[in-house]
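anyone else get weird line breaks when pasting these?? whatever heres mine. first is seq + tokens for prot A
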Amino acid sequence: MTPSAAIERTSAPRRKSCEACKSAKRRCDLALPACLRCARRNIPCIYPGRQPVRWNEMNMDFISTPSQPYTPSQDAIDFALPDLPDVGPLPLADSHLSLNDFDPISQFTYLGASTDIPLDIVKSRTRTLRPVSAIIAKRLQFAVDLLNEAPKMMVLENKTPWCHQQLYKGGMPKTMQDAYACCALYIAKNEINAPVILASFESRIQELLSSPVSTSPIETLSHTQALVLYQIMRLFDGDIRARASAESLMPVLEQSAVSLIGQIEFPDITFANSELPATIHPVMESWDSWVFQESARRTVLFSFYLIQIYKFFQGEEALQCDGRLGLIHSWYLSAHLWNAQSAFDFAVAWAEKEHFVVVNADFSGALRNAQPDDVDLFGKMLLVTVLGVDEVRAWFHSRGAIL
């Protein structure tokens, strides 16, 4: 990158209301990939001149061969990264990589309804003087360590920070069964068996991508979660071919996460503590639905988070969203709700413990009122990315706890 304060802008046409809102004569919030009205009704959201894309419509021949560097679509969530010295790609397999002004979720914003929104992508070329290693140490090392443990956590505990332990208690779809088995193989990988294990990954991934697209909510979620696990294991592995193949899969992960959004109901911070009844039995009955919804919410957010981490380690120049992608996102910050292992435990936690809704990475309310035991691993990972590890340690220390 060359030192420059110039900002390049590319203009784009103004967006119009989707077909469903236009036919119903309702105001469209123009959110991508689907407006809020269509998402809540689980109906196709089609904007003029824009057609939805399915996974099986994509060319899957890239799975076994490296492709051009991954460039996310403008429909994807774009997090803001500081511009960095031109140091080239960083070795993902180095467990000692250690991050500053990296703020991947500060741009994850929801824009209110508008009928006339220009879409501009801003590329900043300003050089930062902060070393890359300092940025990693401060903002990303916590996440990298957590990612390295995710396959083992999935096998030994049936969970990850974005996949609830009870999500698949009623049965695990085959897509996730295959990913689960690959996680077990990955844990046992060594120099001798690595080629066989990585070849098994490629076979399972090819099967996943060539299978018919399911509209079942749990199948859709398991599809995205399986892709996330495959990407983690291959991106953070020292094998160059595995990493190149994983890069080719980034557009598929992005599209899978975008498709999952249509299955999600996002909580409103205004009514966070009143969305469920106060009596215990109705809350108990809502637990299974909450487990699915919260896992889906976290999976979508984490998918784009992983994509952005990879972009950073690849040394890509920052593409800063101008704040007009219109994507809505929120999730529950509550270790008590997330760690509940039964409907009764969930209902008790809902009634007796305060819980917080984080909307578009705004942790201000939680930081004012939450206690350390309210924050689970997912919350810690995002907090460290937003604030920096020392700031989060200070917050925990001020409340008598350790990060």
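and prot B, same format (seq, then tokens)
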Amino acid sequence: MSTATKPKHIGRNISRIRELRDMKQETLAEAIGISQQSISNIEASESIDEEKLKAIAEVLGVSVEAIKNYSDESVFNIISNTYHNTSSDSSTLISSSVNFQPTFNPLDKLIEAYEENKKLYERLVQGEKEKVEYLEKLLKGK
């Protein structure tokens, strides 16, 4: 009794990877320079020519081999392992999801806010001085 391996459905793999990338058929089609209907037909076919496959792989940001060897099980295993490796308990999960490095220096932002506040205060004081001068002029004129 032999077990025949089922051939990979390349079109389905393209569809899955595109969906994982949160990309619409139209977006993929525009990037490659073909119609959305053509992408639909490609995703419905079991095989695809290498040139189109290379172009699709480039737009999806994966290798041709990744498309050919894609399987839902491997994606779920990667997600599951990533989840289990980063969270042995719920406190680790919370700390790992909150532990990120900002792309700016918070101290610089604080200094910028202070400087802006200082400038606004100086403008407010200048406006009040001008108002007082104007009112004094009005009183002297009477």
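btw re prot B: Residues 32 and 95 are 41 Å apart (CA to CA). The radius of gyration is 31 Å.
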